[in-house]
Amino acid sequence: MKKYFIYCYWNDIYINKWKLEQRLPIEHYYKFGDDLILSGLKQGRGLKEIETIMRIFLDKISQRKKNKQAVYRSDHLLAVQSIFGLIKLKKYTEHDLLLIMKRSIKLNKKLTLKNR
């Protein structure tokens, strides 16, 4: 059984990988971003504010990764939601932030989007 992964990047920094379930279509994962946006709207936030919050969060996670600080499990989910949220808002395309692989590969943590 092949394993599929989404590798997530922000500002050319590897944020995390997310294992895809074979039985679920890719659209299932795009709903992660929808859920985050809807949650913000229910709290009375506007789309611009939600976008800003997602960007700030991803900036902080990438700084933590760059400084080799801990990134917590809940942060990984929120990072994936933020990336898919920004794609949903059409601020980025999948090609800007995601790398989908058929099997797990070991990535050099210094690998950037420019080097691929």
Written description of the protein model:
The protein is an alpha+beta fold. The protein has one domain. Helix content is 49%, strand content 16%. The protein contains 4 helices and 3 strands. Strands 2-1-3 form a 3-stranded antiparallel sheet. A hairpin with a 2-residue loop joins β1 and β2. The radius of gyration is 14 Å and the shape is globular.
Low-confidence stretches: 111-116
Quaternary structure classification? single chain
Major beta sheet summary = 3 strands, antiparallel
Number of strands: 3
Write the H/E string, N to C.
EEHHHHE
Q: How would you describe the shape?
A: globular
Number of contiguous helices: 4
Number of domains: 1
Class by helix and strand content? alpha+beta
Strand portion: 15-25%
Q: Span between N and C termini? A: 27 Å
Topology:
Elements: E1 4-10, E2 13-20, H1 26-42, H2 47-66, H3 73-88, H4 94-97, E3 98-101
Antiparallel strand pairs: 1-2, 1-3
Helix pairs in contact: 1-3, 2-3
Short description:
With 116 residues, this protein is α+β, with helices and mostly antiparallel strands.
Features:
4 helices; 3 strands; alpha+beta; three-stranded antiparallel β-sheet; about 120 residues; single chain; disordered C terminus; about 50% helix; globular; about 15% strand
